[in-house]
Amino acid sequence: DVSPVVAGLIGATILVVSVSVTVFVWTCCHQQAEKKHKTPPYKFIHMLKGISIYPETLSNKKKINRIRRDKNGPAKEAARGNLLLAAAEEDAPGVAPRIEQLPIKVDYGDELSPDQSLTPAGSKTSSPSSPGDDVMLGDLTFSVDYNFPKKALVVTIQEAHGLPVMDEHTQSSDPYIKMTILPDKRHRVKTRVLRKTLEPVFDETFTFYGIPYSQLQDLVLHFLVLSFDRFSRDDVIGEVMVPLAGVDPSTGKVQLTREILKRNIQKCISRGELQVSLSYQPVAQRMTVVVLKARHLPKMDITGLSDPYVKVNVYYGRKRIAKKKTHVKKCTLNPVFNESFIYDIPVDLLPDISIEFLVIDFDRTTKNEVVGRLILGAHSGSAAGTEHWREVCDSPRKAVAKWHSLSEY
Questions:
Q1: With respect to CATH, is domain 272-406 assigned 3.40.1180.10?
Q2: How many CA atoms are closer than 13 Å to the CA of 247, on its beta-carbon side?
Q3: pLDDT tens sequence across 256-312
Q4: Cβ(172)–Cβ(237) under 8 Å?
Q5: Is the Cβ–Cβ distance between 85 and 64 less than 8 Å?
Q6: Does the predicted TM-score (pTM) go above 0.70?
Q7: Helix (H, G, I), strand (E, B), or coil: what is residue 126?
C-alpha cells in the first residue's frame, strides 16, 4: 500500500520526465528539419569546365580536389591548390591581451620596390610615372545568359588578355576574378587562381537563381581582377562594371568583351564610422593605437544587426608587419571596443608607416565579411585621415581621437 502523498510525487515525477523527453525530441526534430531546408549562403551553382560544384560542397576541399585530379590528370596535380571557390574566411578573433608590443625592424626597407606602394584601397600596384598616364590593364571576355524556366542568371567568365605584370620576380601574374551583383551584393563569387600567366583562360560558369527577368535592367555586374600574393595582400589589377540595362539575354547567350579599368576609389560609399585614438611617445618610440567605438554600421545579419570586430594591420611601406584583432561585439550596429595596442616604431620610420582598420562582421557559419575600412598614415585615402596622422606626429605624447567614415573594402 502506497500513501496518497507518495503516489502523487511518483505521478508528478513521471509527468515531468515525460514532458521533458517530449520537448527534447520535438526540439531535435525541429532543428533537423531546419538544417534540411536551410538556404545555402550563396544561391548559385558553379560550373568549372563542365563540373557542377554546389554551394553545400564548397567547404569540402578534399572532394573538390579529387574531382579536379580525375578531370585534369596527374600532369596538373601540382596546380590543384589553386582552386579558390570562396574567399578565405577571416580567423575568428581570439582572446588577446589589450596591450601588445611588437618591435619593428629597420631592414624591411631593403625588400621593397621603390615604384610600388600601398594604394588607398589597401592594395599594392605599380605607380605610373605621372597621374595622367594611361595604363593598359587588358580586356575581360565573358558571357551573360538567362534561364527562364529556372529564373536564373548565368554568367560565364571566359578569359582575360593583356594583363599587366604584377610580380616583378617572375615577370608575370597569378590572376583570379571576384564577381558581385550590384546593388544588393547578395551574390559574391570567385574564380580559381591561374598561376604565372598574363592571358588566363578561366572558363567558369556561375548560375544565380531567384533573379526575375524583370529585375535584370536594375542590376550591374562588377568584376574585380586581382593577382594572388602568397605573402601579402593580393594586388588589385582593375575592375569591370557592366550594367545589364544594355544587355538583353532573352534571345540567347550574349558574348561581351570589356576593357579592364583602374579601380575607382571615389565610388566607395560610406559604411559607417569608426573612432580611433593615436598617440606617439618619441622617447620610448612607441605608438599607442586605441580602437574606441563605431556607429551607424550597415546591417549584415538577417536580424538587422551585426557582430562586428576590428582587425588592425600595420604596414611599413607595402609590407604588413603586424596584425591584431579586438573582441567581437554581439548584435550591435554601434559597438564600443575600448581596446588598445602598443607598437614599437622608431621615429625615422614614421613617414612610411600606415595603419589599416578593417571592421568585420563575424559569422560562425559563413565567411566573415568586411564591413568597411579606414587607413591612417603614409597611404591614407582621405584628407581627414592624412590630417589625423599629421596631428599625431606633430603633437607627441598627446592622444588624438577622431571619427572617420569607413570606405568600402
A1: no
A2: 27
A3: 999 999 876 544 455 789 999 999 999 888 999 999 999 888 877 666 778 899 999
A4: no
A5: yes
A6: no
A7: strand
